[in-house]
Amino acid sequence: MIVDVEVPNQGLTITEATLLLWLKQPGDAVVKGDILFEIETDKATQEIESPISGTLLQVLAQAGDVVPLGQIVAKIGTEAGDEVGAGEARDDSRDESDIRNARDRGESAAPNVVVEQAKDIEGGRRMVSPRARRAARRLGVDLTSVQPTGAHGRHVRERDVLLAAEENAGASAARVSGRYRAKTAEQTALSFRDTPHFYLTREVRADRLAALRADMVRDTEAETGVRISITDFLLKALALALRAFPSVNSQRRNDTVALLSAVNIGLAVDTAEGLAAPILQSVDTQSLTAIARARIEAARRAAEGTLRNSDIVGGSFTLTNLGPLGVDQFDAIIVPPQSGILAAGAIKMRPHVIDGEVRACNTLFLTLAMDHRVVDGAEAARFLDFLANLIEKPTLLCSQ
Amino acid sequence: MKQISNLEAVRDAIAMEMRANPDIILLGEGTGERGGSFAHTKNLYQEFGAKRLIDTPIAELGFTGLAVGAAATGLHPIVDLMFVDFAAECMSQIVNQASKLHYVSNGQSCVPMLVRAAMGTIKGAAAHHSSCLYPWFMHIPGLKVVTYSNPVDGYGLMRSALREPNPVIFLDHKTLYSVKGDAPDEETVIPFGKARVYKEGTDLTVVAVALMAQRVLEAVKQTPDISVEVIDPRTLVPLDLETIFASVRKTGRLLIVDEAYPVCSFASEVAAQVASECLYDLDAPVRRINPKAITHPFSPPLEQAMIPQVPQIAQAIRDLMEE
User: Where along chain A do its domains lie?
Assistant: First the structure.
């Protein structure tokens, strides 16, 4: 039998050691307990004993080499006639040359596979119960981050996962769940990191919009079965503005900007499973009733989790309307690779100066977030002005 | 509430059914005028007479075969084997005739017959009088297998058992005979295949039958900090797996306490079924407690060491929570 001799584990924080000196040479007889070699770590120098009696067949690292813990550095044959197989020797020599090369480059030698092995040896195999695995999948918890509390401190159980999920969320475990959570997390982080946002806010008068909407609901709801919302007017206004500003109706792709022919708009939808942003197609060509139907259908599919891939890719812009939830004004994060996002607040009575007098008017705040790589501030301001004009004269939204 | 013993409850159930069904007869060794070795048929002879309470010689193979024939031709015999260990004497009649007649006759014949026997350890009854052989019968298609752990269940299950059209193996635990509990309502009839949930809990599920169910109930008193759900399936065939699965889905932990020998036992079957159906619900390995796989010793201390005891069960519950 051939027994491998490893550089033994040196505690939690040590990952490698320098082999100082061999006390035995290939061919030497060794007795269990004999000192084979010495290593030095950041903490101490240590003599390593032979784990077994036999003959030292091969050494796989030289004095001066930096070797990862767990690395096999020698082979000992326990019986006469044991010899290192040819294939095995070839593999080992490659490891050895990797180590040498690394040393020559002044790096610590750590071929990946060996490091993995060292980790395994240091940590021992960790058992995760099937129930804990399922919980981890459901809650999006990385099992390697879970601290086990079970027998021997190595069985990860459901309660460990739940605890980790709570710690991750900084709140309740339920917070990290939800069908759309992972995607939102990834997209917003990416966008906030890589997209240079700028924001333009404008207060827009909405008396006529509110009145027109009330009229349309009264006149059409019974007939069409669809209740038109302020969101539908905002979608239509945004669509017409995008059609009028081709540079804004665009997506950023690598270092270029793609101008889109169709006007497809994402709509932020709040569901029990988290935020979804299904894309509504060709919004500029549709009537308010058709937009309302499409919006209701998309929200239903988002809530049911039955959005198709084609429902969530494409589009140049997103509308997010937190007005119904009482928000006055807010800044949103662009959904990449779209050029911008429109954040709408609540329509409510606010003091407004008209002809030098303060009057109570219905107004709402619109905030554009734009990708500065795609659009500059002045162009975005003209876009917002165009949009504001459509909302303040909302019959324009019915005439085209 | 009025307390009666398990023995009295089951005896009352037999009397109730014998009053209702004149086809029921009872065959056994000393079960007639003498009233049975455990007094488990006491007074039946006096009420129902020598024609229906038939004392037999010590010849299990003979009178079990006789009962199969009687059942196939219109009577409803109760065969009393006294100790289940001696089912070995008449196993061919039970396995090769009673369990199969309905099938091999293409449903033209049936065998409404009840085999009753006492099982389990009691006071050093030793090698030939201590076994819990229900796994033998669970193994055979065509047999229903019943046991119980309190007077209400014993009464209600015996009444159901005597209405079954094909063979039922009805097993009493000797140690439970004298144990008292709430008396059953006279009308109680308990359907087969429906487990009793003795106690609801959220941390850990324990499944046990007969004496072991009672020991589990004692053991959980010693682990008040652990919320244990205790289930007694009552009928081993048909087995109420749904109740067990639902419980394991809730708790994620399962302990089975079983007085049968460990290999191919009731515990093996439940463990296998749960592993198959509830793997992803399990938060810890399924654990079983069975007797040691040895012949029952006569020595009381050795017998105690062999058979699962209350402290051992309590410790197993605590250990499983720590897994």
Answer: 2-122, 125-176, 181-399
A77 pairs with which residues across the strands? A2, A55
- Judge contact between B20 and B42, C-beta under 8 A: no
Q: What is the pLDDT of residue B302?
A: 95
- Let me know if domain B196-322 sits in CATH 3.30.930.10: no
**Token pair 């589009």 is at which residue?**
A315
Q: Which CATH architecture has domain A2-122?
A: Beta Barrel (2.40)
Mean pLDDT of A262-286: 91
- Give the three-state DSSP class for B113: coil
Contact B322 A134 (CB under 8 A): no
- Of all residues in chain A, the one with the smallest CA distance to B275 is A130
Q: Chain B, 217-276: which have a CB under 8 Å from a chain A CB? A: 252
Q: Can you tell me the distance from the alpha carbon of A88 to that of A101, in angstroms, rounded to the nearest whole number?
A: 20
Nearest to A390 by CA among A318, A296, A288, A316: A288
B283 and A132: CB-CB below 8 Å? yes
CB pairs under 8 A between A and B: 31
CATH architecture of structural domain A125-176: Irregular (4.10)
Q: What is the ipTM of this complex?
A: 0.70
CATH assignment, B3-182: 3.40.50.970
Residue A200: what are its φ and ψ, rounded to 5°?
-125, 130
Dist CA A185 CA A194 (whole Å): 14
Residue B280: list chain A partners with CB under 8 A.
130-131, 133-134
Within this chain, domains B3-182 and B196-322 share the same CATH topology:
yes
Report how far residue A191's alpha carbon sits from residue A256's, in angstroms, rounded to the nearest whole number.
17
Question: Beta strands B254-257 and B287-289: pairing type?
Answer: parallel
Asked if pLDDT for residue A364 goes beyond 90, the answer is: yes
Mean pLDDT of chain A: 83
Instruction: Write phi, then psi, for A4 (nearest 5 degrees).
Output: -85, 140
Q: Does B284 touch chain A (CB under 8 A)?
A: yes
- Per-residue pLDDT of B193-245, as tens digits, reads 999 999 999 999 999 999 999 999 999 999 999 999 999 999 999 999 999 99
Q: B221 CA to chain A: closest CA distance, Å? A: 24
Dist. CA A88–CA B50, nearest whole Å: 86
State yes or no: is B129 an active-site residue.
Answer: yes
Q: B322 to chain A: which residues are within 8 Å by CB?
A: 150-151
